[in-house]
Amino acid sequence: MHPFETIEVDTGVVACDGGGGAGGHPRVYLNLAASGSVECPYCSRLFVRRGPQAGHPDADPGASAKP
Question: In angstroms, rounded to a whole number, what is the distance separating the alpha carbons of residues 42 and 20?
Fold first, then answer.
């Protein structure tokens, strides 16, 4: 069994079809959780938002501060 694929994205909603073709699955649209990731229920691909996540220890604390 090969490891599941991790895909970095820039949006809060992703579409997954398992790669399409004979090895694919019906296209589903998934909303990233507050943690910045979501796993496809069909193929277990993991979609993660690029860059530091809000609330994550590596996040820039000044990035969301208002001047």
Answer: 12
Provide the b/e sequence for 46-66 (b: ≥16 CB within 10 Å): ebbbeeebeeeeeeeeeeeee
8-63 pLDDT, tens digit per residue, is 999 999 999 998 788 899 999 999 999 999 999 999 999 999 976 554 444 444 44
pTM of the model: 0.69
| Side chain identity, residue 16 | C
CATH class of 1-35+45-51: mainly beta
The whole-angstrom separation of Cα 28 and Cα 47 is 13
